[in-house]
Amino acid sequence: MTSTLPTTVDPKKLQEVLDGRWAHVRRDAREHLGDPEFAPVYGETMQEARERITRLSKKLADSGRVGLGFPKEYGGQDDSGGSVASIEMLAFGDLSLMVKAGVQWGLFGGAVQLLGTKRHHDAYLRDIMSFDLPGCFAMTETGHGSDVQQLRTTCTYDPETGTFDLHTPHQAARKDYIGNAAKDGRMAVVFAQLITQGEGRGVHAWLVPIRDDEGNPMPGVSIGDDGPKAGLNGVDNGRLTFDHVTVPRDMLLDRYGSVAPDGTYSSPIENETRRFFTMLGTLVRGRVSVGGSAGSATKLALEIAVRYGDVRRQFAAPGEPREVVVNDYLAHQRTLLPALATTYALHFAQEELVSRMHDVQRAAVLDETAQRELESRAAGLKAVSTWHATRTIQACREACGGAGYLQENRLPTLKADTDVFTTFEGDNTVLLQLVAKGLLTGYREAFGSLDGWGRAAFVAEQVREAVLERTAARALVQRLVDAVPRRDDEVSLLDRGWQLKAFEDREKHTLDGAVKRLRKGATTPGLSQFDAFNDVQDHVLKTARTHIDRVVLEAFVAGIERTADPAARALLGRVCDLYALSTIEADKGWFLEHGRLTPTRAKALTAVVNQLLKELRPHLRTLVDAFAIPDAWLNCAILAEEPGRQEAMARHDAAEPPVIIGEWLPDTPAGATSRR
Amino acid sequence: MTSTLPTTVDPKKLQEVLDGRWAHVRRDAREHLGDPEFAPVYGETMQEARERITRLSKKLADSGRVGLGFPKEYGGQDDSGGSVASIEMLAFGDLSLMVKAGVQWGLFGGAVQLLGTKRHHDAYLRDIMSFDLPGCFAMTETGHGSDVQQLRTTCTYDPETGTFDLHTPHQAARKDYIGNAAKDGRMAVVFAQLITQGEGRGVHAWLVPIRDDEGNPMPGVSIGDDGPKAGLNGVDNGRLTFDHVTVPRDMLLDRYGSVAPDGTYSSPIENETRRFFTMLGTLVRGRVSVGGSAGSATKLALEIAVRYGDVRRQFAAPGEPREVVVNDYLAHQRTLLPALATTYALHFAQEELVSRMHDVQRAAVLDETAQRELESRAAGLKAVSTWHATRTIQACREACGGAGYLQENRLPTLKADTDVFTTFEGDNTVLLQLVAKGLLTGYREAFGSLDGWGRAAFVAEQVREAVLERTAARALVQRLVDAVPRRDDEVSLLDRGWQLKAFEDREKHTLDGAVKRLRKGATTPGLSQFDAFNDVQDHVLKTARTHIDRVVLEAFVAGIERTADPAARALLGRVCDLYALSTIEADKGWFLEHGRLTPTRAKALTAVVNQLLKELRPHLRTLVDAFAIPDAWLNCAILAEEPGRQEAMARHDAAEPPVIIGEWLPDTPAGATSRR
Asked: Which residue has the higher pLDDT, A181 or A322?
């Protein structure tokens, strides 16, 4: 492998590429949200954290930086993509604030905006934006989280009074984990089964006051507290129970379904299931934001681990008068570098997703296919990004040893706060199933609830090609893939076409296999529909994983294509190699099992990955610097505490002779250094 | 695959096997530590947690349950193994209390006992046991954790005054992460470089008062606070800095080295490195306890996830009037069952380790080879058990969805408290390197510091056989392995001999390869010793992993062999199959790459694992019940909160017709259920 990497790469050039389409939003955040007040605080009680976050939410609202996603006529900017970029930037600060903002302006405000109509907008949007009307998004119930279609809360229309009766029939139907519920919320968008004229019309949403002006629960509304959580303790999650609460008719958010005074139901979308998924689909931004926020947290963790690993020494090099910095160990590189490469890959995939979301939502006419694809992509990337975050932040914590366990070094907070990302806004496994379902039914059928596996028509063959067409770089990818000779055993592992082909091939083959097995199960006498699906569930989930992997790699390729600076482009190319090859390496079993790699080539793969690590080692710092995270946001003692420490490190590395083994901290007078 | 499993297995019969040699200690703990006071408390401030844990530590001391490991003449029981079993039981309660106990009676008390001599025992052991003398184990420094031999704190003898001068030369040499330091500690066992007559004699330990009777720092001692941590906030970790502190000559813990009044140094062990590792070796119990505690926390997490997964429903089964409990999903089983099987496997390995530790430490004459092996085993199992804990507790948290993120459901605390296990008492990667070094040098050489890779004599071939001899079940294992035909392609994957052979074979081959590559590197001109080692580090670490995997499997086989009850034995046999095959499946790439599995057989492996999951599914609950964790220790709202909930579940499952979809909580009147 001949290295094509320049000795130094300007991180600013990389940053430009990463900042992408919403660079102005990111720049603005760096300039105006760098306030240390937005960084997390360690060692608070839950009450203190909640009060601080409420205060900061108001401050954020006052800064005018929460309205990007709202309509211009109400003081917003009609910039859906920008609103996600803005949340991604907020996620570099206190994640409780990010989630509180997501609840208030994304979920609650977004529901009023997207499910409501003009009278709701006129009455509430400005107060929502200013945080004068804090609100909840009351969808999840204790008994039903993933299967929203089966929510148990009912809202029954009575033409006599012209009002709805909102009711929680039993404990399992209480609304649970609801942000803004335990302390701040004045209103809630409540999702419930609409019943009128004795007929169920499926899940709809109402805007319901839950507290009066003094902050007391409204009549019939009981409010519980979810109490301390693993993290995000600045967010007041709670439980809502409704005991025959009267809701005026006009509080139904009626963009997709309305009830006339006499109780007649009407909707622009006839089919109930289609209507339901259209309603949910408008809320895709929440999921996109979670994936993006997970990315920001991952970048932060990597920056901390990489910078610490450049100064932290462990053992002496044998026979040499120096101790080795931990970043020089292969095992450490094996931990940090593939994670960093994947973070880059996911960044480009996220950028592409946000861009697509923005365009789909701004289109004059709703492109339903594009919308379904967007949802599928959002679901899959959310799953992959949040799992990657959990794994990587954990690895970074361990990479920092005992220091990584102290809150003053940020990593514990990152870990605890992001942990719920894998299960909120959709459980990751359920989301991957959603992706798989999309692949299997090829977006042709209107989405049924996820129980429909057995009945689904398997028309994958035809639609797979359509699916494959849909990433930004598809034409370029096709050219590269086509250039790979049919017998590809001798093609370099660093050939981008070969890598792309390997990803594509794995996806196709996995999908084919899943389709065949599902068909077989569906026609096996005596096998229940559930068992027929369940026996193949692992295979089905793998289909989704391999699909998302390909989408991510292609987005990376597209990102490189957009990079003008030759040095930055070369470096990104190598990072992309590492992403592609470490992904293949992690699934080596599959490639060998299916004859896609020979044993010899599989061994070579490991050697090439190790070689890439060596080649990228000198650029580790550049790769995290390119994230351009302001120092004020890091709030990490090991990177900042000892004045002059980093200078001393630099001096230490340069000095010879004599280099004193182990004295990696400056020889300042010793003393107690409690920083509390 | 023909199922040989009985329909029901009595969890009590399994429990008997699991309780093992120290069943009496476990029984006693279940009877007397079931006090809810010992369960974790949610939502405390750090100060509250510290005060509570200090109070509980005293209570624990008063109960007389902390002395098992101490000599009988001081009121202990000379039962080293029992002391670990006791810590393992304590780990089912509040992990801060377990760690505080480990610091006080394991590390601090253990160091006084094992590194000190009679005058130290007479003066301090009783007060240590009663917690009237809380103390610290001050080894780790900010700049040196893993490489203890390179600690920077000095303790210089002055024959004029007959005292030592203990000094922290610079910030990086301050003692850090020291339990009991920030609040309670009155004395500390301080590790430092002994200097006398102008000569360094390596690391030794002194007993040093750090606070006076009023709790103020002693002259020259500065005490800092590590502040809030990710978890374990009931433990007061802190920092100690010594500014020329005078230490009387007789406070040197002088079992392995003493200084005469005139400054003459003497030691029963001539070689400094050997002395150092002998000293450290006596402290192996700490590492063994961490591995065992990780096991307890893992069991708790699995019990919560399994029991919740038996009542939590997600989606309806297609075409059926029921919702599926999540434990019935293959993906959920793929998460929980292999983790449970590994937990069983590690339990048996831990039991074998504790037993061996107990016997080695009780032997009249120290068997140095056995001691080295013990250390290696302890290091490896600690690494594997704590990584398994981190991964499994995370998986259980996710398996419980949003509920798993609430502190009232215990999992967040388990996660946060155990997280540091992977890096304290030895960083896991460093520990695996220690294991690998043991394998490579075959225990023949006295251990040098870990920098000695390049110089190590590679005599692996001869010693490997010796290494292989050393597990409890070796004779049985050999018989089973020998019975496998040479061409083993057609042997059932469920053949225990084939499984054992596969593990053994992988270990041997990996070790062979590592030896060859290290030899080659050592003789490559121009390659530094560091690079020669570093280029192979991933391979070397894999050697250690495969070694530990084999040791664990063989311990499982030995455990089954000890099981008399036929039903329990059959069930354990299937669990062992799952452990063995899911371990092979996870490393399928290696087995395919090295021709140990054909592609066809590799595919069959996945099918067999899925079949095992199906077969074990009905026994999931039995497998966690066998851990016999008292309900009072679970302290988990989703398992306990709603009165009659579990009865209702049972009713629900039995009732037909009609089964109401989704109503998996009893139809009690709805209402606010804040439990704070």
From this structure: A181
